Amino acid sequence: MSETTKPWILTPLLESGVLSKIAGCRIFLKLENLQPSSSFKSRGIGNMVLTSIDQHKENSSDDRPLHFFSSSGGNAGLACVTAAKSLGYKASVVVPTSTDDWTVQKLFASGASEVIIHGDSWFYADEYLRETVIPKAEERGEKGIYIHPFDRPAIWAGASTMIDELKEQMPERPDVIICSVGGGGLFSGIMQGLDRVGWGEDVQVLPVETLGADSLAQSVTNGELVTLPGITSVATSLGAIRVAEHAFREAQRPNVKPIVLDDAEACAACWRFLDDERYLVEPACGVSVALAYDGRLNHYLGKFSPETKVVIIVCGGSKISLELLNKYKKKYQESSEAAAAKYKC
């Protein structure tokens, strides 16, 4: 990994007294919501940016200025922009027409050189980026660097650094790690990091998705990669219709157990987590936090002791506000209570 100044930070690991009492075991929070882009994406995307810079510098015959490009209007796009800007480079983003003005303005505020709106889905925005926008940058004399949101080894390597930190912060290895899964970059990085520190076979890993964005769980169930017809969950940051092949392979390890919760459970965890820990996170993160509530850990893990150590990766995310959270609460409170009741039976 590059020795250049890293565009991510070492994040705290805190033991939560409130969630530990609720869950009946020791709950630790790895606060990736505190990263510069407000999500764990700063690690993986940041490392991919660093890797690209190093490779460009090694090619002394190419003196074109670098320009980084992302097709994500969400957390990956923000991570690309914040990482590139922090290192002194330009970054632009192509987003689909469904992207709200708030997100576009946030990308500009974070330092985007340009935000281009094109296509009615991420697929078409990404296609336009690769086939039109980057070639035009090359014609202008720039070196265009395409930043994939999750499916690159440099991204997994960046995400894996949180496990190195965890080993320093928690010398007694955890029993369980819980993480959210979209395309699989975070999950792949966690598994890579666990292997590197010697915990690869000893830690139970629970990758969590929402129903309607559960491409990993469906793939594991079917024994082959599954492409979803579309994303129907409100947790759009988990919206990869097909998980990375590498993540699918990692999920077949015996110590990995994919879990799927519904939108109501994910959203309820967001407002409860705000009350309990004063952190505002989006449903894509809330779905992991949800396992600490209402007996879900006992349901999915079976018996454990009060000393069982569970680390929740608080992956964060920027696609949330108090206004939106209140809308979720109005829509899902009744159904979330019904969902909680089934775990208490």
TrEMBL record:
Gene3D superfamilies: 3.40.50.1100. Belongs to the serine/threonine dehydratase family. Signal peptide: none annotated. Its main location: cytoplasm. This is L-serine ammonia-lyase. GO terms for molecular function: L-serine ammonia-lyase activity; pyridoxal phosphate binding; threonine deaminase activity. It comes from the Eukaryota. The keyword Lyase applies.
